[in-house]
Fold each of these.
Amino acid sequence: MQMGTVIGNVWATRKEDELTGLKFLIVQPEMPDRTSAGTPFIAVDRIGAGFGDQVLVTRGSAASNMSNDKQLPIDALIIGIIDSVDVETKRGE
Amino acid sequence: MQMGTVIGNVWATRKEDELTGLKFLIVQPEMPDRTSAGTPFIAVDRIGAGFGDQVLVTRGSAASNMSNDKQLPIDALIIGIIDSVDVETKRGE
Amino acid sequence: MQMGTVIGNVWATRKEDELTGLKFLIVQPEMPDRTSAGTPFIAVDRIGAGFGDQVLVTRGSAASNMSNDKQLPIDALIIGIIDSVDVETKRGE
Amino acid sequence: MQMGTVIGNVWATRKEDELTGLKFLIVQPEMPDRTSAGTPFIAVDRIGAGFGDQVLVTRGSAASNMSNDKQLPIDALIIGIIDSVDVETKRGE
Amino acid sequence: MQMGTVIGNVWATRKEDELTGLKFLIVQPEMPDRTSAGTPFIAVDRIGAGFGDQVLVTRGSAASNMSNDKQLPIDALIIGIIDSVDVETKRGE
């Protein structure tokens, strides 16, 4: 999974039928220290993430393994809102 | 998902049998502010996207999760035509 | 999907059993104007592509969605031989 | 699969329901000689990996092929804790 | 698929249960002329590849389409040992 911060929203009225009602957020991928790391992308959110939240995102077709009856054509899903990140900097201590 | 703009079309008469009738568009991937971000690729379109439209594209095998009976060998699908993008630039406001 | 040109062949006598009889071609990925764009890779061809053909390639596990009984361990499939590419360079005209 | 070292943990109370109870570790991808190679990412661990361990990680939707009843929306899984790596530097000897 | 050369082995005693007995090789990805192209990765081998062999590797979740009863959490599989590579350098001749 990738860490990132929610930086915005995308609206699309005309879309694949099955996707009606889903929320699409713009996520800026980040390093553990929250410096930017790569190009922003769009992720589906079902857990109530909002602007500025640090999130955990599953990318690729695994994103479509949501607990629905069928697999949707989505390739990024916010799976968690991060409470804390603990990075240790010394090996073996 | 990735944002991008439709910049052209590709025609292929000889193709895998199951793909007959699909429309193949060339998409230039872009940042939220519509500056280019990477190499153009080809996506299937079923929702009527056209030249110049800003679109939302699912890449990878999730693209084949279209509402058909079987999964097709495609790796990019235009899932929405973007109405508006809202990027906020200050955290916590 | 990715555009590219067929630049060669690969032969492998010893291989996973299910892959016997498949044709493996080397594809140079390209931009719409046919300038090179990245590292050559190997794709399965079932539609008769040959040296110098400009092709459309599906990459990733969607390539295994061929019309067979079972999914094979392949990650690139030539899905079309390109007749023409139409890239428009001015927006909204 | 990718080699890497566990460098930390991520906690997320609010998450997709099915993911409750999973452990999320931060992995720094590495070359065989353990020099860093790319951006840290988050992987699910079920085999007891800990800080400083050199691990083998499956990325992409294959990570969801865990021995469960259903496929989860995760895209990285620690599949092994590495005991030793043997890289030979001369061909044909 | 990707071409590469087997440059070593990885051993991991503690691993996901289903992976017991699989052989994990280190592969250096290469161009058709065997110059290096990217970061080494780990692939499962079931066809007897060894040190120095030039191999064809399927990456991503398609690697788990092995002829088994269930799909395993692996993302790279050696599918062939290359006998010969034929790259032509002039178009249309």
Amino acid sequence: MPVFLNTQDAGFEEAFLLLLSAKREDSPDVDETVAGIIADVRARGDEAVLELTAKFDRLELTADQMAFTPEEVDRYCAQVSDEERSALELAADRIRAYHERQLPKDDSWTDDAGATLGWRWTPVSAAGLYVPGGLASYPSSVLMNAIPAKVAGVGRLAITVPTPDGVVNPLVLLAAKLAGVDEIYRIGGAQAVAALAYGTKTIAPVDKITGPGNAFVAAAKRRVFGKVGIDMIAGPSEILVIADKDNNPDWIALDLLSQAEHDESAQSILITDDAAFGQSVAEAVEKRLETLDRRAIAGASWRDFGAIITVDSLDQAATLSDRIAPEHLELCVADPDALSDKITHAGAIFLGQYTPEAIGDYVGGPNHVLPTARSARFSSGLSVMDFVKRTTLARMTPAALRAIGPAAECLADSESLQAHGLSVTARLKSLNERDA
Amino acid sequence: MPVFLNTQDAGFEEAFLLLLSAKREDSPDVDETVAGIIADVRARGDEAVLELTAKFDRLELTADQMAFTPEEVDRYCAQVSDEERSALELAADRIRAYHERQLPKDDSWTDDAGATLGWRWTPVSAAGLYVPGGLASYPSSVLMNAIPAKVAGVGRLAITVPTPDGVVNPLVLLAAKLAGVDEIYRIGGAQAVAALAYGTKTIAPVDKITGPGNAFVAAAKRRVFGKVGIDMIAGPSEILVIADKDNNPDWIALDLLSQAEHDESAQSILITDDAAFGQSVAEAVEKRLETLDRRAIAGASWRDFGAIITVDSLDQAATLSDRIAPEHLELCVADPDALSDKITHAGAIFLGQYTPEAIGDYVGGPNHVLPTARSARFSSGLSVMDFVKRTTLARMTPAALRAIGPAAECLADSESLQAHGLSVTARLKSLNERDA
């Protein structure tokens, strides 16, 4: 059973804080192992990657078999059914259309002092995308990572996807192809992250690595951060549904379960202003749970981390929601836009009862890589912005330097940075002599 | 003497790679110490912070003395000269004007399927800014960190600035006041970072921490990352100047020295298409070095990490520059805009001979917190974007769900996420029954 809370209960605040701080994930300490793998790949390159692939993925490869050839990719893609291909194409088109609107704009202007200022955005030259193998090998995640990179203009996009025992997911390859991925390597784990970051004879190094992975992959990403850029380190998935009584309890139950089925550490929370409705949802969850193939996982998540919170008003729901700062937030209420305006911290908001969060996972358009573990307080989901960087621009005329240079000299002096000041002074002196 | 390279030399590529990979900083391993300090502050709050402040800053405080009172701030600010105050005000105004143009825009649209999509930006609620004490206590850095946060709309901005032996830098307090900082605490080190991240009785926790610091501060920021957001971990400063022969060697020498004087680990590189001009700059550096108060620091940086590279053409200069991906790039050439267009990776570009990098450090307008250590390949300088986050929005109508829902069902099925699919199926079924 999930926890039932009511803001009118005496112990509410304490119980809510407990819910907020529940430690849902035990990260095994693999840092030392990962450090060894990275050092090995840096020292021995391909050779180390191939040995580790044989060991962990039970797959013997030669260096020239690491990458899928275009012919291999086509052969696997041909195994995908027409229905699945169409669905992936629709998803790719919608994700691309959404992300194309995110491209940031350059700017340039000349101000009163005569200084021309501005900035310019350029894409990361090369990016690497980690795709997990096995059960969590999701073609939708390939689209969600690769399309923003390609929309940003990343010239070279490489994917690593382990194929344990040689088992390949054709949908992952098709998603990569639809997204315009340039290179696909059948390697995984910390060794794949190390190869992308430092390069080997076969794999050229990249500048940025994104994508989900297990504890080894996460530890490797943390370690190579600085040498390359990385995206966030994602925690287990979460959903918060705010629903009034005018909802179908079964729909809300399925939305809660669609997070719970991801992972035993996932968290699903319902906030409602009607206690009886909350009870109906709880019953609907139990009923649906019995029918799910993944009922062991979903049931454990719901039992250990699920919650149904009854509030006095939707305003109160918004306040609690901001304290949770959920990754996914569904607003199943009569006026979802009005409620949405009261929310400050959320990765993604799904408005109204016809927008189940699963739509956002696949075909809505917005990215499904979103900030977990309350980090929506300070970070955003994956976007085109993760694959571009800004160069600021400044150009002074002699007149502009005269106007603002003396202030720079003064501040350099106050910070005891003499050469800073002199670099301005020498120019101003020369300008003054020229005028004299 | 710095290293002299020429792209026509046989060993150039090897020597250039050596320059690129030079390890300029030995990070002392303080991680264990820092972990202990953070745990102590989490466990004992104010009490731990006060003890550590007494120990490291030789300053005995009570909890209610941790924050500067408004009266204290005013008293210190009154010590600042009119000239310095005016210079700080000019800097603050220009930095604010530049950053106000960075505010990102919300978007919302309805597509062909009838889905209303978009996103919304909101500020981080509370941010903390670490300001170093002692020699590296720069009021300009206070402006560069605090103004983007306030432009973004951060509601609560707290500064921590250690005051070893009780010595206060009035300019830091004035910069904080001009930037609109809300709270100023006279604490520093890992204990200040821990207090900002986890909160104490006196200091409420923040959501994001930015600002430079020593090895202890950097290690603490790495450790609290995840609990709060952080900005980059900055390395030692760098400048690359590309200059043709029509420049005053003395000006260029001063620009190179204005990085070198920061730190023995700083790096200054000149690329020129005229070997004789490079020689003149080298001589001018030696001459100026003799006159600098910080000649020991600047001289060590120039000797150990400085370089003068002669190239065949400015195109070749641009290519080398992108391989360096410099933090600061000065283009002192006849047509700096044309050369700038050939550059992809740089934190900030200063165009033309009247734009010494020092202008950018203080009064130009763009931020001086910039990506170091080749990270301009994948990251940007500090900006308003570091203090906002995006919430994506999606709203389906029944018609939109009918149009794109089946593709979501198909993909959920192919990923074996049954509840995901059912959350769409249940709604579509109900819509179809309603129509029947």
